[in-house]
Write a structure and sequence with these properties.
Layout lengths: L4 H10 L6 H9 L7 E8 L5 E7 L8 H5 L8 H7 L5 E4 H4 L8 H5 L8 E10 L2 E9 L9 H21 L13 H13 L5 H12 L3 H8 L3 H15 L4 H8 L13
Length: 266
């Protein structure tokens, strides 16, 4: 008997709060839009992300997912920025939310390009305080094409249903509540403790924005300061770290974005 789109959606509902939910959701979404890979991630205020599902036609897409992305590189991901910035539930495309120099930064060159991903669209929702879920659909080298306007329109139509199902299924997840510590402050503290590099709060903020792929103009707009002031802070940052390039900044700081001293992208 041939299964219909409605059958696939019914299977999602039947599997709510069961182990088969993520797979059922994947099967239903595949009836709505063609994609090459899917990853479902939970982001938390108090710890690193958890992978709920990861499937791809091309092995390289998720080859470094656990060892690199989950270990710390996720902090530089624009989709993690949705969690950090408490974005509204909805549908988001990477190209629309990424920093202005995302494709020119070291995270993109060292990690993202290795995945062969060429386009991503994510259903984003926040089932409970301190927890976000991203259901990310991707196109990679296996198809070699981006999502079309028609694809995007179709996914927009089912976004509210998808996110409602996701919120209900993962409403039992929790994150410890407490004073939020900015990633830049954690970075500054670890550099001082482990490398005796003393950055000011502003310098550590600028460092994180640089690693995420923001230009001086974009950083200035985000922090409410002039691009010239950003350039001054950048020079001070490089001097304190005894480096002269973004690549060196990336190599120095990325290990301190995770909980492991051994983290690296080599």
């Amino acid at each position: 008997m041939t299964r219909t789109v409605e059958d696939a959606l019914a299977d999602v509902v039947i599997n709510l709060e069961r182990a088969g939910f993520a797979g059922a959701l994947h099967r239903w979404l595949s009836t709505q839009c063609t994609y090459d890979n899917i990853v479902i991630l939970a982001f938390f205020d108090d710890r690193g992300p958890e992978v709920m599902l990861a499937e791809a036609n091309e092995a390289r897409v998720f080859e470094k997912l656990e060892t690199h992305y989950v270990a710390g590189a996720y902090v530089l991901d624009p989709f993690f920025g949705l969690h950090r910035n408490r974005a509204q539930d909805g549908l988001y495309r990477l190209a629309e939310i990424a920093p202005d120099q995302f494709q020119r930064n070291e995270f993109h060159a060292t990690y993202y390009e290795r995945t062969t991903l060429i386009d991503e669209i994510v259903f984003f929702s926040r089932p409970v305080e301190g927890v976000s879920i991203t259901v990310c659909l991707g196109r990679d080298i296996s198809s070699g094409r981006k999502f079309s306007t028609r694809d995007r329109s179709r996914l927009e139509k089912i976004a509210s249903v998808t996110n409602a199902l996701v919120r209900h299924n993962w409403r039992g997840l929790t994150a410890k509540q407490g004073p939020e510590i900015a990633v830049s402050d954690q970075l500054r503290a670890r550099l001082l403790a482990e490398r005796t590099i003393s950055l000011s709060p502003r310098q550590s903020e600028v460092a994180l924005y640089i690693l995420q792929g923001h230009s001086s103009i974009s950083i200035g707009l985000s922090l409410g300061i002039s691009p010239q002031t950003v350039k001054v802070l950048r020079k001070q940052l490089y001097r304190k770290c005894n480096i002269s390039s973004q690549a060196e900044l990336f190599a120095l700081l990325v290990p301190y974005l995770s909980g492991s001293k051994d983290y690296g992208l080599a």
